[in-house]
Each structure stands twice: as structure tokens, then as C-alpha cells.
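Consider a typical record:
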Amino acid sequence: MRAEHSRSARVAGWLTVLAGMLGTGPLVAQPVPAALPDFAACVAGLQERARAAGISDGVVTGVLGNVERIERVIELDRKQPEFTQTFADYYNRRVTAERVEQGRELLARHRTLLDRVQRESGVPAHYLVSFWGLETNFGAYFGKMPVPDSLATLACDPRRSGFFADELMAALKIIDAGDIAADDMLGSWAGAMGHVQFLPSVFLKHARDGDGDGKRDLWGSVPDAMASAGNFLNQLGWQRGLRWGREVRLPDDFDYGLAGRGNSQPLSAWVDIGVMDVWGRALPRLPLPASVLVPAGHTGPAFIVYDNFDVIMRWNRSEYYALAVGRLADRIAGAGTLSRSPATGDPVSREQVRQLQADLQQLGYDPGEPDGIFGPATRAALGKFQKSLGLIADGHLDAGIMAAVREAATLSPE
């Protein structure tokens, strides 16, 4: 009886996963079980979906029919970083002197190509090189996972089956179109591919043939990769003639409660309260929407960011990533180092952040879901707590402020 119940639960879970992959409603009103569905049965369902999508039988049988489940992919999908990375650690690992030097050399080497892409897409050459550097260190590392295997593994895992089944179908269409052979389609564990790490769905929509050979080869063709990156950024809304932002100097009496992408004001309004460039000169008095960011707190660098910063974040939804792209682009174009280096600090674990979030909730502040991620909501809540103590309310996380929050929560009545 117990075995029969287990078999029924297994079938119910597989039907739910299959319904998600086929884009239909739930076939049975059962929750997905914790156990993974049978991989062979899942692949058979994916093959049916691929045939229905018009993918050739040769690819359905020869590629999808031979995929293998990769346990390491599941491990990486489940893995969460133990520590919250500081801006200093993130930035200093990515915007290095070596990467700037190599970026400048590649900018000069590919100037004709990059200028052509800039004319077509509106994205300046140094930004294209910066994305290239951040994504794969200028093509030094694409990832070594077979993309069809990785995506099939994730498509047959209940956690995000629908998303990865869509990406798998896109990857099969790329192979079917002849852009790349299945054996050469290598990428990250999650299926990101080539010089600029496009997911297959992004490849299908935005990849371009930049060298005129009739294929879109993001692995072996720098012209294809740069044309594709420019086209993607253009489609994401890149504004010609507008920079990402810049490092700025804030007035001594700056209200750090105004910092954050949630507070956009005309650049002229920031000028009015005394925000200047790093040399103490006035910024242009323009109606351009702008926000101030202080990713390392009031002792670190401050930035003012514009609409193209948001475009960079549509590529990768991380403020740290977008700041690194913008600054690396500036450095490649000839800019110097930051006027205020971000201070390094001890790493903070996700469990410590969860405790901080729980403590802030107990104290009446709203940090959002206690998920161990130090995001904008938690930063804003921490800033309000700092303000209540008469501290500079920059929302910056360090051991001292965590201890203060912990002590206040301990003394607070339940």
C-alpha cells in the first residue's frame, strides 16, 4: 500500500512538471514532490514538445534523445552563496588594472568593428568591451558544460522546469538553424553561452551575424559577439549619447535617505542640493532623471546614475554589476581610478543577514522577506534604524550596526 502511494505521488508530480513544460494548466491538483521525476520520461515529454515546435527529427532524436543528466548542475542550482559580498570585494575583483589594460588593447585592436557596431546600435565601443570583460574576461572562459545536457537537467527538475524547458527549446532551435553544432554548444551550468553569455532565448531574439558568414557564432566570432551585444543593449533601451552615470562628491550635509534607485530626481535637483563631480565642479543643470548610489556607505564612493544604468541592469539585475560595467567602460576609455576607494570589511553571512532582517522586523522596520539577501528594502530599513539613533543613515552593513540592531531587538519587548 505504501509503495502504491509513493508511485501515485511520483506520477502526480511528473504530470505537474510536464504540464509546466507544455504550457498547459495543471493536469492534476497535486503539489510537486521533493523527489526528481524520472529523467528518461521527462526527456520523452520534452521530445514531444520539441517536435510540436517544429524542431527537426534529427535534432530531437540525435541531440535531445542523447542528453545526460548532470548532477553537478543541480548542485550549482541549489547552491547559495554563504556570504554577502561587499561592494569593495565585488568591484576590486572585476575592475582591475590588468583588465583595464587588456580592454584598452582590445578596443584599439577591434576599433573598426566596434565603431561600426556603435553606429548601428548606439552603444559606445568602450561599453561593448566592458561587457565582454565582465562576462567572460574577454573570451577567456565561456563555461565547459554541454548546454543541451545542462538545460535538460534543469528542465527535468521541478524547481524551475518551465523556465529551463523554454531555454532548452531555444537551444535546440539554434542547433537546428545550423548556428553551432550540438557538441560545440558549451556554456555555464545555467546555459549562458559565448563571449557575452547569452541565454538561448536571448540568442534567438538578439544574436546577429557580424562577420557576414551566414551564422551567428557567439563562441568563435568576435564580430558576431559584439554585434549581438550592441543589438541586445539597443533593444533593452540604450539611449544614444547618454553615459551610464559617474562618480560624484556629495555635500557634507547630504541626506542619505535620498540615496537609492527608488528616488529618481532631475539632475538639476541634485545640483541644487550640492552634488558635484569628483573635482568639485558643478554638474550640468539638466532635467535628466538621476539617482544617487552609495554602495559602500558614506565613507566610500558615491555615484549618480542615469537611464542607461537601468539598461545595464536589464542585462544583469545587480547594482554592483552595473557599477562595475560602467566604471570598467570609463577606465577603458581613459578615466582614472575612483577618487574614494570602497572600504573593505569582514564578510557577512546570509544567516547573519536573516537575523538582521528578523531583528529589524521586530523593531518595527520593514526589511522585506527575511531571505538573507541584503537588498534595497533591507538597506532602507537599516537606514531608518540608523536615523533613529542619530547616525548617518546610509544603510551600510557592518559588524557594528548589526550588533546595535541585535542589542535593540534583544531589549525590545516581544
User: Anything to note?
Assistant: The longest strand covers residues 245-249. Residues 1-35 have pLDDT under 50 and may be disordered. Residues 162 and 308 are 31 Å apart (CA to CA). The longest helix spans residues 2-22.
